[in-house]
């Protein structure tokens, strides 16, 4: 902004020597769209320089007739910030009067032969460029985003005018042999336009980018807030209410911890489709249901199929058993009551180990009606072409080992 | 008695750990951020530092960078299960990694083990290492460092399955000392290997 103002002041001083007559602190240079005829440039300038509006307007009319004014006006329109006020209605009568002045001057100079028709193509081109530039005015960006129809119309008209101006100019002026020079000139002009417009486009692009990023950030914040509210605060309340039930408190805390952990660190893997995610999910469910911490470690991963699904069921059953019987003897302080689950996919071999450090039991002594162990673990694995092994001894905990070879792909 | 410095930015957690460790170790200092930690460790010269992975001022890795080489040994402690954090701090020079959910008794054991110069792997860290060194088909640049031996793999798998060192020794018919040697050797490989896979694997696990 600062730099831009500097440019404007410099431009003013060089163009209108009357600027130095301003005694008091000059008003800020901004386009006064409240009193505009076209873009509020002249009234703004007049306020800034301490001159009558009519003086500035007449000066611009003369400059416009000479052609130079177009560029100056468009440049000021673009570069000078708009005053923060509602745009006033244009006084058609005055506008007509000034237009008549410009046209009259043009006819006069044309008639006098001082200027030739070449000015008109330049004016047409200038207006075209002006329309394009004006369209890109940042304050109006939003409105144009909404009314894209008029944006397209303006763009097309502006572009057509530029092309028409250039073509007319070339057709009028060009003599064989001068083509090279003319092309060079046009290129220089276009490059100039690009230099003027580029920083502005860049800024607009950055604004949009910053805006988008801010929106994403605030969405993320909202998501975090919602998550904390729904789960964490809820759990904390529940924990306070069940303060006299250590087991329930532990269950709640574990379940919340797991939930947060998964939310923060885990990939969004689909528990329906991949082994590692499915094992974690099964462990989480058992942990919730039985209030026993289950430590899961997975190495490797593979897609689930029917047989691996059966293996998963067997593993789940083993976890349930472990959770039920994992508690050490009452008063047995040194022993950690937790269940370890280790799932490994190495090539085509899939193994799952479920281990507790509980009492353990005598495998031969378990009654035949204990369906859990025999049917849902060993039987299920064997039916699906895998194998299950149970290692246990009283006082030594229990480990269930499940192994299966994957289907050939 | 083992002299220990606690580094963690949560005062509440530090008091909790102190209460759990009780009389089994001597707490000679505490710190809540990287600068403070470096100062306290240099002044107190403890045997073991319990180092939080996430610390204001650059994290546990920064403390390791500024203190090592030193006689002091580091045991990383973290709530984060992010592989990148864990592998990062171990490669930075920590002799082991345990999660903050570890029980007081297990933590005391882990501290003793690190103080003696051995390595401490949690089941999860063992899983990470197995995963990172898994791709056997990738040609190793330095086979000494870039591959685990069959025995080391077996030991790591048992750790991942929740076995204590004593149980591993029994299972594999070796001595506890030999188990410790294998784990230390894995730690060395983890720290020194330039294995391309390792960093790529850790980076791929940068979840969230």
Give your account of this protein's structure.
- The complex is a heterodimer of chains A (409) and B (208).
- By secondary structure, chain A is of the alpha+beta class.
- Chain A has two domains: 214 residues, no CATH class; 136 residues, Heat Shock Protein 90, CATH 3.30.565.10.
- Chain A has 13 helices and five strands.
- In chain A, strands 1-2-3-5-4 form a five-stranded mixed sheet.
- In chain A, helix 3 runs parallel beside helix 5 and helix 6 packs antiparallel against helix 8.
- The two termini of chain A are 65 Å apart.
- The N terminus of chain A is likely disordered.
- Chain B is an alpha/beta fold and 208 residues long.
- The longest helix of chain B has 17 residues.
- The relative contact order of chain B is 0.12.
- At the A-B interface, helix 10, strand 1 and strand 2 of A face helix 6 of B.
């Amino acid at each position: 902004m600062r730099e831009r103002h500097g440019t404007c002041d410099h431009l003013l001083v060089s163009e209108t020597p009357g600027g130095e007559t301003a005694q008091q602190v000059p008003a800020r240079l901004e386009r006064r769209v409240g009193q505009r005829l076209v873009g509020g440039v002249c009234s703004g300038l007049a306020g800034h320089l301490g001159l009558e509006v009519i003086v500035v307007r007449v000066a611009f009319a003369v400059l416009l007739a000479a052609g130079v004014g177009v560029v100056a006006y468009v440049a000021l329109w673009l570069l000078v910030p708009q005053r923060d006020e509602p745009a006033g209605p244009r006084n058609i009568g005055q506008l007509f009067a000034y237009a008549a002045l410009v046209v009259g001057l043009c006819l006069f100079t044309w008639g006098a032969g001082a200027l030739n028709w070449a000015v008109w193509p330049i004016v047409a081109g200038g207006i075209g460029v002006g329309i394009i530039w004006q369209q890109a005015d940042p304050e109006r960006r939003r409105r144009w985003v909404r009314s894209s129809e008029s944006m397209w119309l303006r763009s097309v008209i502006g572009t057509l005018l530029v092309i028409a101006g250039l073509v007319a100019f070339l057709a009028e002026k060009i003599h064989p042999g001068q083509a090279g020079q003319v092309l060079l000139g046009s290129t220089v002009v276009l490059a100039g336009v690009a230099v003027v417009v580029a920083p502005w486009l860049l800024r607009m692009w950055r604004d949009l980018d910053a805006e988008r990023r801010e929106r994403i950030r605030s969405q993320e914040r909202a998501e975090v807030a919602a998550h904390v509210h729904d789960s964490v605060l809820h759990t904390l309340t529940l924990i306070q209410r069940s303060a006299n039930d250590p087991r329930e408190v532990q269950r709640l805390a574990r379940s919340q911890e797991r939930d947060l952990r998964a939310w923060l660190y885990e990939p969004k893997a689909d528990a329906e489709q991949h082994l590692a995610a499915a094992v974690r999910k099964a462990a989480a469910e058992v942990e919730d249901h039985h209030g026993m911490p289950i430590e899961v470690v997975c190495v490797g991963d593979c897609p689930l199929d029917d047989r691996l699904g059966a293996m998963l069921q067997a593993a789940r059953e083993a976890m349930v058993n472990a959770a039920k019987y994992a508690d050490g003897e009452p008063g047995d302080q040194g022993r950690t009551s937790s269940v370890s689950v280790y799932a490994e996919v190495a090539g085509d071999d899939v193994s799952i180990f479920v281990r507790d450090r509980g009492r353990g039991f005598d495998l031969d002594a378990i009654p035949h009606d204990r369906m859990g162990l025999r049917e849902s673990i060993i039987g299920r694995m064997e039916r699906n072409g895998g194998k299950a092994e149970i290692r246990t001894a009283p006082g030594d905990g229990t480990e269930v080992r499940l192994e299966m070879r994957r289907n050939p792909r | 008695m083992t002299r220990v410095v606690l580094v963690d930015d949560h005062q509440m957690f530090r008091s909790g750990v102190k209460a759990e460790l009780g009389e089994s170790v001597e707490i000679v200092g505490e710190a809540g951020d990287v600068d403070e930690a470096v100062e306290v460790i240099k002044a107190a010269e403890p045997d073991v530092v319990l180092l939080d992975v996430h610390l204001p001022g650059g994290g546990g890795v920064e403390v390791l960078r500024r203190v090592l080489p030193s006689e002091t040994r580091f045991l990383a402690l973290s709530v984060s299960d992010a592989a990148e954090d864990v592998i990062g701090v171990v490669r930075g020079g920590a002799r082991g990694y345990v999660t903050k959910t570890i029980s007081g008794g297990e933590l005391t054991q882990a501290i003793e083990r690190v103080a003696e110069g051995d390595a401490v792997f949690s089941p999860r860290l063992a899983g990470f290492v197995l995963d990172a060194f898994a791709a056997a088909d990738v040609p190793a640049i330095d086979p000494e460092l870039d591959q685990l031996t069959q025995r080391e793999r077996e030991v790591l798998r048992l750790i991942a399955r929740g076995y204590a060192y004593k149980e591993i020794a029994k299972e594999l018919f070796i001595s506890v000392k030999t188990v410790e040697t294998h784990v230390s050797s894995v730690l060395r490989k983890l720290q020194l290997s330039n294995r391309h896979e390792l960093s790529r694997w850790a980076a791929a696990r940068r979840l969230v």
